[in-house]
Amino acid sequence: MRVLVTGAAGRVGANVVRRLVEADVAVTAMVLPGDRQAAKLAPLTGVRVIEADLGDQAAVDAACAGATHIVHLAAQLVRGDTPVDRFYDINAFGTLRLLEGALRTNGGIERFVLASTDGTYRPGDPPAVPLREDAPQEPADYYGTSKLLGEVILRNHAAQFDIPYSMVRFATVVSPEEAAGYFRLDSARAMLRRADLGRDSNIWQLFRGRPDLLPILDTAAGDAPPDAAVGLVGPDGHSWSLHMVDVRDAVQGVHLALTEPDALGGVFNIAAAEPTTWEHGAAVLAELFDVPKLSVAMPFDWRLEVTVDAARERLGYQPRYDFRATVQEARATASGVAADFIPARV
């Protein structure tokens, strides 16, 4: 097996490369030209690192040369100042260029794994709770739509050229050192300020006709410190929820999608065993970091949850980390325990 991993300097990508290297798999790691995060790969022996932009077919062809398998993790998550056509070109047509690269240089591959996202389910207004893989995919935002187009391109190119494939749709991927930043007052404010992006946000539906969310939070918080733990609760008493996945469980899902025979032709949500409610996440932070905890009443419910039943049943996926375990891992590594993951940023 010779595997090309795109997005190899990313949060998931570097850890996928590490997993493959530990299994004595030959890896080509594709990174953006000049990406400083590529330094994360330096300690991994035997990895061929190649710089390539997903918009450059010749560079993509060079990266694909000799690969028997491709794990496509590269994507741009936030559009920012990127022109819309360039953003779609990266996330959708980048997938096409990789497929063409495999056909041009190798005549085909043994498996193509595409990393997609729960963002294709319209996270600002989910059509179901929990979301199964057959839930409607009508994201109506730039990121979710661009990733959905990548899925369509893969399905159709695979049918046209007999390319074996599988797809994983990640929940919110969290590296342990990042976890304690969730469910805080300052992070809750940052999320609600995404309303300022208007319909450029991937959760714009959440803010539609609701300009009062940030004032509600600020009024309830009063003079609480920015690191206070915050639980957001709907009018029926149910906490808001967010489905997360520890980066190590994300790697497990990718590896199974790459290696399991039953993964072929399938699409799999990859997430923690259970979603994390804001109330639970805030309680964990208050306990472990001795910070105050607030419960803030919001005027509606919001639950972004997926089911991982398909991955469990077809792949043998066994998520190991809930929010508490991820936070505790970060505390352990901060105190000197050797980490079993590569942090998100160098």
What can you tell me about this protein's structure?
The chain is α/β, with parallel strands linked by helices. The chain has 2 domains: 227 residues, Rossmann fold (3-Layer(aba) Sandwich); 91 residues, no CATH class. 36% of the residues lie in helices and 17% in strands. It has 11 helices and 14 strands. A 7-stranded parallel sheet has the order 3-2-1-4-5-6-11, sandwiched between helices. A 3-stranded mixed sheet has the order 12-9-14. Helix 2 crosses helix 3, helix 3 runs parallel beside helix 4 and helix 6 packs antiparallel against helix 7. The longest helix is centred in the N-terminal third of the chain and has 23 residues. This is NAD-dependent epimerase/dehydratase family protein.
Spatial ordering of strands, largest sheet: 3-2-1-4-5-6-11
Label the overall shape.
globular
Instruction: Name the helicity range.
Output: 25-40%
CA(first)-CA(last) distance: 29 Å
Q: Which CATH architecture of the largest domain would you pick?
A: 3-Layer(aba) Sandwich
Radius of gyration over C-alpha positions, nearest whole angstrom:
20 Å
CATH superfamily placement of the largest domain: NAD(P)-binding Rossmann-like Domain
SS class: alpha/beta
Number of helical segments with 4 or more residues: 11
Domain NAD-dependent epimerase/dehydratase: 3-271
Pfam family, one: Epimerase
Organism: Phytohabitans kaempferiae
Protein name: NAD-dependent epimerase/dehydratase family protein
